[in-house]
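User: Quick sanity check before I run a bigger batch. Here is a single chain. Can you write out its predicted 3D structure?
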Amino acid sequence: MTRQELIQNIFRKKSFLCVGLDVDLAKVPQHLLKEEDPIFEFNKQIIDVTAQYCVAYKPNLAFYEAYGIKGLVAFEKTVKYIQTNYPDQFIIADAKRGDIGNTSKMYAQTFFGEYKVDALTVAPYMGEDSVVPFLDYKTEKKPWVILLALTSNKGSFDFQQTTDTDGQRLFEIVIKKSQQWGTPDNLMFVVGATRGEMFKDIRKVAPDNFLLVPGVGAQGGSLEEVCKYGMTKDCGLLVNSSRGIIFADNTENFASVAAEKAKELQKQMEKELLTI
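Assistant: Done. Predicted structure follows.
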């Protein structure tokens, strides 16, 4: 999906919601465990009721790899289901890959060649030759890299906010340097919603790039603050909610409750988009 197609979807659907498909079988409704593939069945029902309210889905690979080959099969089925039934959805594989060049090429082939997702989260610690193979991967649709920049976990202070002799924080260096490798047409950044006013600093170094923003909802991030400091004329945001939607209810009514939670966020986002 191109940047322009993504922007068009956001304004057409009046939403910049990304639904995180982080399936934990200990939390899904018990009646689904009787299904042949409970992970896929759970995802399918969540997708069917939330697709009208969101523009993206983000399955986190850890929640599929944890179940071995069955989990990976469920991941592949989930991706294909979205692609077949909801082709306007932006699909993010949240895998946080990042290794030396040869390995990154194989990861790129896995996600962009085999699964044909739109975007992949990538860890930048190993530098240019671990990131560029993803940006350069040749496919029918130009793939996106979503680079970890400023996360909301407490460990982010260990590295991301350390400063160099010029006073630049590491996350700022990462954002500036990576823009030599990609453009706003294929490079996004992960910025945690609980950072609030830090979005002002992010926008100083990345004024045009889209930001993938986890942490709204269950993690306590404020959608209003994210929009106040991070929104651009093109919206420039994909705000993710996982647990707050998919695990809002664990009864046989889980899908309808998930739909209501997604709709609530979409309505809030519609109001924010009117301010642009």
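The beta strands are 17-21, 56-59, 90-97, 119-122, 144-150, 187-191, 211-213, 237-241.

User: Great, the batch can go ahead then.
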